Amino acid sequence: MTTLDKAPAEPSAEPSAELFAEPSAELFAEPSAELFAGPERKLKLGGVTREDVFTVLGALVGSFGLDWVLYERVLPFSGALGFLLCWYLLFLVGYYGLGRLQWGGLMVRERLASVVAWSSGALVVGLIADQIGYVASRGYEAAQHANFLTETMERTASLSPITSGGAIHAVVGSLEQLGLATLFAVPLGIAAAVFMSEVGGRMARPVRTLVEAMTALPSIVAGLFILGIVILTFGFDKSGFAASLALTVMMMPIVTRAAEVVIRLVPGTLREASYALGGSQWRTVWNVVLPTARRGLVTAVVLGMARAVGETSPVLLTAGFTSRMNANPFEGHQISLPLYIWSYVKLPVDEMVARAFAAGLTLMAVVLILFVTARMLGGRAAGEPSRRQKRRLARAEREARALRPVPVAAPASATAPAPLRPAVATGEH
Question: What is the pTM of this model?
């Protein structure tokens, strides 16, 4: 009988002993420490390195020396402004040259753009700090006395000492006029923005054109408009209410333009989801669009307030001038802080000039307080839960943790892996 004639071997009825062998301990052993040998290196994305600092310092020092040589020895130039401008241009050229010695062209252009952005921001901050410092230094003589914020100028003459008189009546007038103007301008401006961005139609283009034209309207024209219509035509007296109407004319186009841009940034999918759930157009705008654009609308209000808070000519034409306290904006003349500054800074008396600069410092503080308050009232960003919702989520999480069963430790014998059961071999004999 040949090998081909042999019958295939029958499968063994007894399972092999290898199937019942205990699993090797190497499978459950801890990973070797050699795998994690060596110190861990952290990757730093962005930031400022030592080379960046030295490159900027080298460019600053080198450009300053070259600028001094050009202005003092070579070129017949003079003046601090030209010196600083030339220094900045030479600094950019020097930074680009030093950067080319270290990095590639793309990285040099990127870092040069970063330097220009940072220097521009530093310039703006420096100018603001310089203005605040100058106003504070000139007005500190009057602002350091408590009477400046507690008294009026009713019993103070030009030659009175600095410890007499104050600007409390101007502070009250500015707050009331700005408050009324905000009360009138914000609803009208947001309503116009909603009309142009959500409703549309044939009148949307003429309204947008009119708003854009009013954005560049001179403040004196707004004052003359209220003077001619409200005071001369309808016979109302000059008052803080008339001044607030003039400020409203100036605030409304700023609020409208900014609010329209913000509303257009709301994703259209949110509107579609509201319409799919059966919401009407006005309910979609009220419950979806406006809450989503809340932060941007607050910014629009802040821009409008910044446009109106420092105006003098509309208040001078519509509110008049007074040195007494008038807390009623609907009757009698009423003064504001900008008008107070304009009236006293031109007098040839040092005490009056100091009071004017102190009023300017007070106006800065009032504007800062109003803007911070507006930001706080702006609330949370879109999608961010409120404080009540955060408290509810925290309470629900604590309750869930309290109801969660505590895991019971398994016995030591149960921790070992169970042996593998052999598969039953089947086959035809």
Answer: 0.72
